[in-house]
Hints:
This protein is mostly beta strands. The protein is built from 2 helices and 9 strands.
Amino acid sequence: MTKAILIDPFLPAISTVEVDGFEDIQRMIDCRCFTCVRFPDGKHVAYVDDEGLINNTRVGVRFIDKIYPDALAGRILILADDGQGGDADCELTGADVQAMIKGIVEFG
């Protein structure tokens, strides 16, 4: 199991969770197809619903521009990268992630 941070803009809440493979990632962010957004630290990756906006997801997360300049629709799962293409335990805390979030956004 790998430690991750889940951002749920529907609640809103930030929590620590454990995942074991891509099926858990899909389940945690409630999607069929996901994409990755690499954080500027080169160590962490955010998994997001690749079809979030076309599936009419109404809320998302806006990170500070330094992290990512556009709002990301739906739930977000943050893991670390092991440097070889695999996942590793997220080294960020909930407080670290909260400090990276500009706010919750609603899509029209």
